[in-house]
Amino acid sequence: MFSVARSDIIQSAVPLVPDFVRARGGVRARFGASAHRTHALERAESGGYRVRFPRIAETCEAVLINTGGGMAGGDRMHADISLDAGAAAVITTQAAEKIYRSQGALTEIDIDLTLASGSRLDWLPQEMILFRGSRWQRKLAANIAADASLTIAESIVFGRVAMNEIVDRGFCHDRWRIRRGGELIFAEDMRLDGNPAQLLAARASSNGARALATILYVATDGESRIDEARNLLADAASECGASAWNGMLVVRLLSHDPQELRADLVRFVEGFRHSQMPRSWG
Length: 282
What we know:
- The protein is mostly beta strands.
- 13% of the residues lie in helices and 46% in strands.
- The protein has a domain of 188 residues.
- A hairpin with a 2-residue loop joins strand 16 and strand 17.
- The longest helix has 16 residues.
């Protein structure tokens, strides 16, 4: 017979990695238009997160970089992107973002997008890969002028395919809030808690798909491009669909194969934007 001291029980509940070593930071960038070109007017970086601007003649492109190579429980990242009137920019990431297993704390990402009158932003990060045991929460908020144009293409992969990883434990909460002219026009939450793989296996959710993507296009011609969007999806290998209402166009893609979904997403976005994906996409 033996006993465990109360102090030992309390000590065992302390995270193996203390809070003060977690990565906290982000980037802030402001873009403005002059002489028919868009330029980065302001830039701020902290906590191992960087933003770089490749020299591209056709457009103003910014690449977000996480020098840590991924995010773990307790890490927090904030991206604050704003466009002045008439500016046009493309934002992407250097690579897919990896969300590692957590000891309990959330991995938090906050994204704030602000678009002034007549501006255009294409938010095109590479996929988010959620490892088994990860606990990830993202809040994406956009405030855009009535005549601004916003394209968001986000994809999530559950588990590492090469390792046959199944995300049978973890937490995922993805929250989007889009406001146009001060009015809330799009609100969506996806929350998977406990056993994400089991929840995704249901036919009413994703029928076992391990990769999903959402493309949101908000612009004055959002609804009128629905036929174009459906034509671009005609040859997709992923399960997909498009709908349009209230000046918005929404495209969904699901696939058991993340590479298949990535190829379909790239094909659609390039056809819809009439431009190639950023060079970091390879």
